Amino acid sequence: MLITGIKSRPVYDELAPMASGLHHIAAAQGSGGKPLIRLLEAMTPGQLATTTVLYSTESFTGQNYLADIQQFKVCDLIVYSSNADAVRALDGKLATAQMGTRLYVSGSEGFIGTSMQVATAYGMNRDEVLREHAGSFVRRVWCAHCGHYSENVTRRVFRCPRCERSLVVRDHYSGRLAAFQGVKADGEVPGELPEDEELDT
Fold it and tell me: 173 by DSSP, 3-state: which?
């Protein structure tokens, strides 16, 4: 049975140029390249000249928009092979960002969540950031027992790669953790696992 309408999931935006921005950072991965292209198309030449793009080619859906993104005359385009590398680069960019910087994030829920953790750590306000989901809703899951994050989870029951416990994925999304929570699947009756199913992704 699929669980639909998860109320704790973030409500996402539609990327559009923020006129109040003096500097722009756009971070996207995989399928997030599509809304990123729409954003860049809507920017003025002046906005493009002050925009740094961080793009990760890692993608659960296999979509890659790099060739199209390269057509835009932005200040800087930096490409990464992994989402984690792109998020680390975003951290570095925000560490030296000037006042008036606006952030645009697009891609998977996990990518947006980890990027928002970085933005929040630098005190970026809600009116300085736009987020647009693109692609699959595969889940990022945090193990409540060992603290490990697992990416691209699609099944209700799965084994944590760090502590090797069988976990059941709850349907509550934590903005603080930027993940869904995974708890011991047979915590109430040892050896008795709940029915496995495909997650509502």
Answer: strand
Instruction: Give the Cα separation of 114 and 40 in Å (integer).
Output: 23
Burial class (CB in 10 A: 0-12, 13-18, 19+), 76: exposed
Position with higher pLDDT, 197 vs 139: 139
**The length of the chain, given as a count of residues:** 201
Q: With helix as H, strand as E and coil as C, how does 105-160 read?
A: EEECHHHHHHHHHHHHHCCCCHHHEEEEECCCCCEEEEECCCCCEEEEECECEEEC
CA distance 51 to 96: 14
pLDDT tens, position by position, 107-160: 998 899 999 999 999 999 989 999 999 987 788 899 999 999 998 898 899 999
Q: Could you please report the per-residue DSSP string of 26-93?
A: EEEEGGGHHHHHHHHHHS-HHHHTTEEEEEE---SS----HHHHTTS--SEEEEESSHHHHHHHHHHH
pLDDT at 168 over 60: yes
Position 179, amino acid: A
Q: What are phi and psi for residue 57, nearest 5 degrees? A: -85, -5
- Gyration radius of the chain over CA positions: 18
